[in-house]
Amino acid sequence: MAKKQFQAESKRLLEMMINSIYTQREIFLRELISNSSDAIDKIYYRALSDDQLVFNKEDYYIKVTADKESRTLTISDTGIGMTQEELENNLGVIAKSGSLAFKKENELKDGHNIIGQFGVGFYSAFMVADVVTVISKPLGSDEAFKWESEGADGYTIEKAEKATVGTDIIMKIKDNTEDDNYDEFLEEYRLRAIIKKYSDFIRYPIKMDVKGQRPKEDAEGEFEEYQEEQTINSMVPIWRKNKSELTDEDYHNFYMEKRYGFDKPLKHVHISADGAVVYNAILFIPEHTPFDYYSKEYEKGLELYSNGVLIMDKCADLLPDYFSFVKGMVDSEDLSLNISREMLQHDRQLKLIAKNIKSKIKSQLQSMLKDEREQYEKFYGSFGRQLKYGVYSDYGANKDVLQDLLLFHSSKEKKLVSLDEYVSRMPEDQKYIYYAAGDSIERIEKLPQTEGVLDKGYEILYFTDDIDEFAIKMIMSYKEKEFRSVSSGDLGIEADEKDKDNKVQDADKELFAAMKELLSGKVKDVKASKRLKSHPVCLSTEGELSIEMEKVLSAMPNSQEVKADKVLEINVNHEVFQALKNAQASDKEKLALYTSLLFNQALLIEGLPLQDPVEFTNDICKIMA
Ligand code: ADP
Ligand code: MG
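That is the input. Now the predicted structure with adenosine-5'-diphosphate docked in place:
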């Protein structure tokens, strides 16, 4: 029998196909199963317009059979089959899609399920097989034909015997080589896993003969071998079901089956969008932070399906970084896939979907914050830091999306409050939103700098995350109220009447100048404090960089020498002030000692390292002696 040649282009194409289009070999199974599903769908669509043809769903299935002995893997279906001519045209001409033609002929519009369109998927079989044999009997015919090919040099077609309508694709699996293991495609567990991964939501049953052992019924302790036919795929995608039919448990089971996480998700969002872009999605907000979440290893993304077939494991473009904790999937018929169906050709639809998803997540979080505060705080405990990074990164481009989702610990409420809650109860005369930064709530509570603000009855937000102050600098102001650190130079608080008498005297100015001289290079200024009530000293800062930011920046690898402009503030109502004045008048050495001590104390309160701890302890001993 004469061998027919592939058309020249087809030959080159086929070589390309086999060697370079797909990144993963295992997808050949996805492609062949998709073809079988299309073939069954075609009978289904035919039956819609043909009264003679009745479509009984139970009669239609796909079967995957591996035989290690003959090294064959067979995909059989009860679909529409192919005539001799169709075998020639569809399998003999690369990039010719009988399925695309079928869709056009039958004017199938949106909502159809047919997957094929490029006319190349079939050839992916040659990635794993030396010989591919197709035996097919078309609907409405008594004749069957066999198509066979060993790859690029052509194919044969001859008459064959086949009892039932449908198609068998028989692959002679390649022998293992030094680098490549092909045996895996004959292993039941591997085939099952590949089917689950890509084809779980194919609408027809994908069956396999499963071998196993089970306890013998009549003889205790003994086992018997068994073989039974099992359906591997779940078939009905949960996202195509009606929301009202689904319970929380259904969603939770889906979350676990898909291994999105091991926790119980806090929330799910089920989207069925049919506006500018048609898609279904199920999104989850996990409860716990994945162990690698705040590391480079963590990969964000949603599963992407086209017509129920998995295209991408983790499509990163579907999620902004600041919502990278979201898990779940998107299924759309509207995607224009590239030829390998592993990627998208251009991303207009994807961009639309991503935009849509972003706003859904945001409104979900907002309503949680409003109506389920406890749940939201759990979420915030796990992923709040990510939201704050989101505010800070991209030069604050996303602050408007995120600022209303932020929470900070409040001095007044002793719990987390939102910026809106803070601003809405600000007293009339309060100019700024105050915050204090430190390692922990306990430490911040003891900061001398908070005294003045708290004394006025104003609320302070406590920043305990490294990122907090950086994020707030990006927001700058909220509802027209600027943020102010309690350590900043100008607090916008008028001095109380009783303090007005304590106007700094000229003599005091000299004292401060002398102290500044003693601390030159360490502080920018020394002055009388307006914020201290009971503590003798504290540090404040001038300019944008705060002490907490200095700490964060200097802890970074390859950090530049960054220093906040520090001001040493002295409480002129405190008794140490008198001691300073006395020293200034009588004993310059004592003044130097006191100044150094006070400065070091202020550093300690801030959690900053002392330049010379030994000197500091010696100084204390000097005083005690
Ligand atoms: P596509 O599925 O994108 O059309 P393929 O290369 O996977 O491209 O398949 C080419 C064509 O071969 C299909 O369009 C279809 O007409 C035909 N075909 C492939 N497999 C089968 C099958 N199992 N049953 C019937 N027709 C098939
Ligand atoms: Mg195909």
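The CA atoms of residues 393 and 471 lie 8 Å apart.
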